[in-house]
Amino acid sequence: MTVAIKIRYFASLKESLGRDSDSLDFVQAMSVAEVWKKAVPDQDMPENTLAAVNMEYVTIDYQVLDGDELAFFPPVTGG
Amino acid sequence: MIKIVAAEFDPFAEVQDYQKQFTQTGKYGATNLFIGTMRDFNEGDKVQGMNLEHYPGMTEKQLALVVAEAEEKWSLLDALVIHRVGDVYPDDVLVLVAIWSVHRGDAFDASRFIMEELKSSVPFWKKEILADDNSRWVAKNTDGYL
User: Domains along chain B?
Assistant: First the structure.
């Protein structure tokens, strides 16, 4: 079974990676941390990175599913 | 009601307009307004403008969760939260939190809670443009409502 997900990057992370999204297909179930390693193999995930799946916060051991939208972003600074 | 707006807004006019739709008059004894405005300095530097980025969809969703949590913790009659995105300049209003309740304590406490949670959990990111045209991301975060 193929799992296809969309990855989005925001703010300083988007800027440092030079792109705002990736699409990824894989055959084995993967956690958020494993997806990062596949999508950004040349860079460790910054320590304070936040992750969300389908617009809800998740921990990096969360298993992504087919059709998920996974987002990575730095700490928020609104208000 | 939660609104994310890309243009300048007048918080007082927004509150006045919003109150006009209230059907239950005579019920609220307290209205608390918090208005957050952009400063022209930060971390010892002069700031000429900012860009406020957000995550359309998730920002609204997280803000709705924060307001719902406040409604569980305190007895509130209504809430209006407006947050600005896009290019902003000193003196622009960045955020409005208006709370209506029967008694003042609930309105004061819920406003503080919503602001602290907004600053620590709702996806917005500020990028400052300094006086020398260099820009930098605001990295400092708050711990939420304590």
Answer: 2-18+28-134 (3.90.1170.40)
Q: Is B98 helix (H, G, I), strand (E, B) or coil?
A: strand
Q: ipTM for the complex?
A: 0.96
Nearest residue, CB atoms, A78 vs list B122, B137, B140: B122
Return d(Cα B15, Cα B81) in angstroms, integer: 10
User: Of the candidates B83, B137, B141, which has its C-beta nearest A12's C-beta?
Assistant: B137
Euclidean distance between CA atoms B138 and A12, whole angstroms: 9
Would the pLDDT of A76 be above 90?
yes
Cβ atoms of A29 and A41 within 8 Å: the answer is no
Identify the pLDDT of residue B30. Answer: 97
The alpha-carbon gap from B120 to the nearest alpha carbon of chain A, in Å, equals: 6
CATH value at residue A38: 3.10.20.30
Over its C-alpha atoms, chain B yields an Rg (Å, rounded) of 16
Domains of chain A: total: 1
